[in-house]
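Researcher: I need the complex structure. Ligand is NAI. Inputs:
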Amino acid sequence: MKETDLIIIGAGPGGYRAAEYAAKNGLKVVIFEGDHVGGTCLNVGCIPTKSFARDAEIIQTLNNAETFGLNGLDYNFDIQNVIQRKDEVVSSLRSGIETLLSHPNITLVKAEAKFVDAHTVTAAGEEYTAPHIVIATGSVPKALRLDEPASRRVLDSSDLLSIDHLPERLCIIGAGVIGMEFASIFNAFGSEVTVVEFLKECLPVLDADIAKRLRKSLEKRGVTFHMQSAVTAITNDGVVFMDKKGNAVTVEADEVLMAVGRAPRVFDHFSHAGFEYSERMGVVVNEHLQTTVPHIYAIGDVNGRQMLAHAAEMQGIHAVNHILGKADEIRLDIMPAAIFTQPEAACVGLSEDCCKERGIEYVCKKSFWRANGKALAMNESEGLLKLMVSPQGGILGCHAYGAHSADLIQEVSALMCRNTTVEQLAAIVHIHPTLSEILQSAAEQ
Ligand code: NAI
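Model: Output:
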């Protein structure tokens, strides 16, 4: 039996950041990973999609080349190059993480770990024990339950990231974060994209007004959306759904992407440790990320709280601080998020709809990309920012879409973490000309 201070199961952003932080704070860590280090985010999520999104952005710019005085430009799109560049980005970051995990206090075991009991795991024929264990096993794509099994191969986001050809017609089921990012990317690549969504509007996390504008923007680029439509079958021809009037409609497609959410990645062997979990909700945790067996923690997607890489990282650091008995100022309740469509969208805190639903008094301050000098110079005039403010001037939330909106939202998150008022925000000098002035001008209203 090998003894250590901390066992971490899973080397995604939650697990590897927790390992690095714990090691720097003097703990001996054994971290287990059954696949590549970096988890979903690095290998088949955030990073490869951002590599694709950058290709899509360049194509979009080239499509408007004449606006920038580049006449008669011609190019060929080669998806093999796009995939190769994405693979190079991923592998360079992967080796960065392996270097990070070569810290003298960290042992990386490249094998799947299984619980034997609440203090012991087994991997590759060896048993390991520690006073504290952190579970960071991530999530898996959900699939639709249909009456008949699909009569063709249905792709998930990982499959679509390593596709070796450009689908002529791509049908995406689900207009959530994954569905919208891939719709934006493959539309720019040249596929004919159709999205089928169950709800009335895309991106339920986002302010509905902003989500609608973003959807309309993709529609203008040629993406077809079928909202309030329930998929009933996936056949060799494509996707069959019931539209809002009750008619059965078929979308013909060469490839089908299933993007209807992700589920916490839980295992039967979790039951050997005795903590509470379920397939649907994941591992139950408290505000310190402790499971119902207090020396075992669960961070990231597996606890089903906030399925975001940066949430996993900060949860991991908070869990390690709790193990070390160290107080911290991490605000897991202020969790910014971004959707890397083109234009991108981002949010933190309450949307206008949430304020209305919860009966919270608010003032909504708006600002538009079209009124910002830098945005016009960039030829990025599309975008809207909505800043929700309490009657006392407290910042309740901010939702936006438009070029680099994630960077603007990051500023709002920082200010919210420090309880900055909207008057104080308006008084902060912002560099001219930058997109950050969009936020300042909303605050000034
Ligand atoms: P999601 O939960 O964001 O969206 C799933 C969508 O599928 C919803 O709009 C839902 O209404 C729809 N849907 C469900 N059943 C349906 C049906 N029968 N027919 C049609 N539509 C149906 O899930 P998604 O996009 O798969 O993403 C999974 C997770 O990964 C999310 O938690 C997301 O936050 C995370 N993620 C984050 C990214 C980012 O931060 N940029 C990028 C990609 C994923």
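Model: Summary of the prediction. The longest helix spans residues 79-100.
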